[in-house]
Amino acid sequence: VSFRRACVIGHPVAHSRSPLIHKHWLAELKIEGDYVRQDVPPEQIAAFLKNFGGSGFVGANVTVPHKEAAFRALKRPDPVAAHLKAANTLWLENGELNGMNTDVYGFLAHLDESVPDWNRGARSAVVLGAGGAARAIVYALIQRGLEKIYVVNRTLERAEAIAQEFGKGVSAAAWNTLPAKLREASLVVNATSLGMSGQPQLDVDLKRMRADSIVYDIVYVPLETPLLASARARGLRAVDGLGMLLHQAVPGFEKWFGVRPKVSHALRAVLLQDLGAKGRAS
Ligand code: NAP
C-alpha cells in the first residue's frame, strides 16, 4: 500500500488536536502515512474542495468554520451530514469527494461507553447551545428516542430555529427557565463554548437535578470544566468532552487507512498530556 496523507482543514487550525490522534494510530498500527493541519481561509475553501482530488490527500477532517462548505461540496453526503447540512469527514472514492458527519457518532459512542445504561428510562434532556454542535446533539438524542429535548440558548431565536427544524419533542426554552427544565431532565449537555479556557464561565445551578442524572460537557479545554466539577461534587454522573473528540475521529481513519482504530487509554493519555501541558503554559 502506498504512502497516504490526510489532513484537518480549518481556519484557524493550529489548535486542532486531530493530528495527535491520527498520528498516534498511524504509529500504533504501523501504517505508512501522515496527517497534517491545512489552514484554508474562507475565500479559498470552495476551490480547495473542488480540487481536492489534486491536493495529494486521501481525505480530511473538517473543522470550524468549514463544515457547511464541506457539506455543499458533496454530491452524496451520508444521511447524518445531509440532515445537519454539515460534514466533518471527507474521503476520495473513485476520484469523487465523499463525506459524512461523525460528530453524532462521537457524541453517542462516548456517552454509551461512559454510562452504558444512560438511555434506559431517559426521557427528557436539556441541550445548552444552538450552534453546530448542539444541532448534532439534538439529532443524536432524537435517534436514541428521547421524548422531550429542551434547547436553551442565549439567542432564543437560534434555539427556536432548531425546535422548528426537528419538530415534535424539541422545544426552545429561555435561559431563565433552566431551573425548571433541569428538574425534569435526566441528561444535560453543554454545547456552548462557555466554560472553555479563555471564555466566560457557564453559570448553571445543578442543585435541582435528580441524583441519577448525567451532566455531559463537550468542552474539553480544560478537561474538567467547572460544570463537570460541580456535577461530581453533587454526586451526579459527569461525562467529559475528550471522548467525543476521540470517537468522532475513528470512522475517518478507517476510510483513509483501511483499519478501524481503537479509542484506548494510551490514546487518551497522549491527549491528556497535551491538554495538561497547554493548561500549565497558559
Ligand atoms: P458555535 O456554532 O459557534 O456555537 C456556539 C454556542 O455557544 C452558541 O449556542 C452560542 O450562543 C453559545 N455562546 C457563545 N458565547 C456565549 C456567551 N458569552 N454566552 C452565552 N452563550 C454563548 O460552536 P459549535 O461548533 O457548536 O461548538 C460549541 C462548543 O462545542 C465549542 O466549545 C467547541 O469546542 C465544542 N465542541 C466539542 C466537540 C468535541 O468533540 N468534544 C465537537 C464540536 C464542538 P448564541 O447562539 O447566543 O451566540
| Biggest β-sheet description | 6 strands, parallel
Total helical elements: 12
What is the share of helical residues? 40-55%
Give average pLDDT, whole number: 95
| Global morphology | globular
Low-confidence stretches: none
Q: How far do the termini sit from each other? A: 42 Å
Order of helices and strands: EHEHEHHEEHEHEHEHEEHEHHH
Question: What small molecules does the structure contain?
Answer: NADP nicotinamide-adenine-dinucleotide phosphate
Number of strands: 11
Cross-sheet strand order for the largest sheet: 8-7-6-9-10-11
By helix and strand content, what is the structural category? alpha/beta
Estimated radius of gyration: 19 Å
Strand content: 15-25%
Highlighted features:
19% strand; 11 strands; six-stranded parallel sheet; 12 helices; 282 residues; binds NADP nicotinamide-adenine-dinucleotide phosphate; five-stranded mixed sheet; alpha/beta; single chain
